[in-house]
Amino acid sequence: MLRKLLIAFGCYEIAKPQPVIDACERIGLENPDDAQLRPRALWGARLEGLLFVWVLVRGREGSTLVSTLLGAAGLALLAVPRPFIDLSQRLVYENADDLELKPWVKPAARALGALYLLVVVLSTRGDESTAASEDATATA
C-alpha cells in the first residue's frame, strides 16, 4: 500500500511539480512569497518524481545505478544535510541569499533522506511482496 502511495506521489510530482514545490516552500521558508524559482526547478522536481516511480515500479529489475544514487543521496541527507540544503537552494532559486530558512529545515532534509532510503528498500522488497500477494489472491 505504501509503495502504491509513493508511486502515486511520484506521478503527481511529474505531472504537477509546482504544488509540491509550493508546499515545500511553505514548510521550509520563512518568506516563501519572496522565492524566485529558476526555470529548471520544475524539471528537477519532475526528475525526483520520475526516479521514485522508476525505482518503485522496476524493483529489482530496475537500474541498480538509479537505486544506488537514490540510496546514496538518502544516506548523505541523513548524515550531513546542510551542504545539500545549501546546494539545492542555489540550484532551485535565483535569490537563494534572500531566503530565510525555518529552523526545522535540517530535520526535514533528514526526513527526505529517510524517504529516499524507504523508496530504495521498498523497491528491493517489491517483487517479493507482490509475488506473495499474487499467490495469496490465487489461492483464495
Please describe what this structure looks like.
By secondary structure, this protein is an all-alpha fold. It has one domain. The protein is 76% helix and 0% strand. It contains six helices and no strands. Helix 1 packs across helix 2 (17-28) and helix 5 crosses helix 6. The radius of gyration is 17 Å and the shape is globular.
How far apart lie the N and C ends?
A: 20 Å
Uncertain segments are: 129-140
Strand content: under 5%
Relative helix content: over 70%
Overall number of domains: 1
Keywords:
140 residues, mainly alpha, globular
Describe the structure concisely for a colleague.
This protein is mainly α.
Set down the secondary structure blueprint.
Elements: H1 2-15, H2 17-28, H3 41-58, H4 64-79, H5 81-92, H6 105-139
